């Protein structure tokens, strides 16, 4: 193996580095000396493998992928290494990753201890933890699109109701921590209660949807072999994230844990409510995983009268305008009803989807 970190720091991104005749580097302290000098062990670099990040997707682009990128868990130390050939790089990456995996149970125990210290361990069991490579992307809204009925898990990017503009090479290591209710994303391994309680981003599982995993049936403008995409409904719209992993085993583990996590969150929450307006009348919309949809009158001083009640089985079509309106069609004489949620409806849309998906899974229709 050969360390090439100095070249990444001192040369332009994407520049090819020669194996046999490299440019001057900090390791060449005495260019006038005849022959290589013995290396001082005090100058050796050490990176702990405890929850370290290792990837073979680093730059520069190499016709024969020989590069490894290793980050310490705190994000402070980084190494770029180059092997003689692809087989050596693959072997080293596998060996390093295997050693990193042995530390994961210890890391989980340490994080659970931090959660216990904050008094939140009871509902924050850690289901999965690991590094993901996030691909920086931009999402351009296209047009509102119905979300029911549809094939819950056969998505691929060509069928998504948004325009996915993929990155021009921008990636970032992201530490993902999956709990009972949330997906927490960090820039480095949290070492304190404060750091653990302040993730860079949080995605509630009940409002999160796995929309793509692995190779796509359609044509896609990026290498999707070991990638998966998530969408989360928020009060500001839809957040979309594209992640890649290093092995099919990692992809399968994250895919299953995310799908199961969304279903667990739906079964755990059971019911959500939100204020809305129906036909100019202030109401509260309640959505229950078993009881379905209920509209309650919400005028000040008025009795809490039920204005509408429909089970999920009656729902024929749902859609939204991406701004504030939610449309629910239960058929029958009333037809489609229009609810103004007074904010972006995407959170409620995604929660309804999670309830539907969990109910279908209960029936054993999905593996």
Automatic annotation (TrEMBL):
- In the UniProt record, does the keyword Membrane occur? yes
Where is the stretch described as Disordered? 1-41
Name the PROSITE patterns for this protein.
PH_DOMAIN
* The keyword Cytoplasm is assigned to this record: yes
* Keyword line: Cytoplasm, Membrane, Repeat
Q: Its membrane topology, per UniProt?
A: Peripheral membrane protein
- Coarse class of the primary localization is cytoplasm
Domain of life, per the record?
Eukaryota
Recorded hits in InterPro entries, A to Z, give: PH-like_dom_sf, PH_domain, PHsplit_syntrophin, Syntrophin, Syntrophin_4th
Q: What Gene Ontology molecular-function terms does this entry list?
A: structural molecule activity
Name its cellular compartments.
Cytoplasm; Membrane
Q: Where is the PH domain?
A: 1-101, 177-263
Q: Which Pfam families match?
A: PH (PF00169), PH_17 (PF18012), Syntrophin_4th (PF23012)
Q: Which GO terms describe its cellular component?
A: cytoplasm; dystrophin-associated glycoprotein complex; neuromuscular junction; sarcolemma
Protein name (record):
PH domain-containing protein
Q: Upper taxonomic classification of the species?
A: Eukaryota, Metazoa, Chordata, Craniata, Vertebrata
């Amino acid at each position: 193996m050969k360390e090439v970190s100095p070249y990444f720091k001192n040369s332009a991104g994407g520049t090819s580095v020669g194996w046999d005749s490299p440019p001057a580097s900090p390791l060449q302290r005495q260019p006038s000396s005849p022959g290589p000098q013995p290396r001082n062990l005090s100058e050796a670099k050490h990176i702990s493998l405890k929850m370290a990040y290792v990837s073979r997707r680093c730059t520069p682009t190499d016709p024969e992928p020989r590069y490894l990128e290793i980050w310490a868990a705190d994000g402070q130390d980084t190494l770029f290494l180059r092997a003689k050939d692809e087989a050596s790089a693959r072997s080293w990456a596998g060996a390093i990753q295997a050693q990193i995996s042995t530390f994961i149970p210890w890391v989980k125990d340490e994080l659970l201890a931090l959660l216990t210290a904050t008094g939140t361990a009871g509902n924050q069991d850690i289901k999965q933890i690991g590094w993901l490579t996030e691909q920086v992307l931009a999402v351009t809204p296209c047009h509102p699109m119905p979300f029911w009925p549809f094939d819950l898990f056969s998505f691929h990017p060509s069928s998504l109701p948004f325009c996915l503009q993929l990155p021009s090479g921008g990636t970032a290591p992201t530490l993902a921590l999956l709990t009972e209710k949330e997906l927490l994303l960090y820039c480095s391994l949290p070492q304190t209660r404060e750091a653990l309680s302040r993730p860079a981003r949080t995605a509630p599982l009940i409002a999160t949807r796995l929309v793509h995993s692995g190779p796509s049936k359609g044509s896609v403008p990026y290498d999707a072999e070991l990638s998966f995409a998530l969408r989360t409904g928020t009060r500001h719209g839809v957040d979309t994230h594209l992640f890649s992993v290093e092995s099919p085993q990692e992809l399968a583990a994250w895919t299953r844990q995310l799908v199961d996590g969304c279903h667990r969150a739906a079964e755990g929450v059971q019911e959500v409510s939100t204020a809305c307006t129906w036909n100019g009348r202030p109401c509260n919309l309640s959505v229950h995983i078993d009881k379905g949809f209920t509209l309650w009158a919400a005028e000040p001083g008025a009795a809490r009268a039920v204005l509408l009640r429909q089970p999920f089985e009656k729902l024929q079509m749902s859609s939204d305008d991406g701004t504030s309106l939610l449309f629910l069609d239960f058929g029958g004489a009333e037809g489609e009803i229009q609810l103004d949620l007074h904010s972006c409806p995407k959170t409620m849309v995604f929660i309804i989807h999670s309830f539907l998906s969990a109910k279908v899974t209960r029936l054993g229709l999905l593996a």
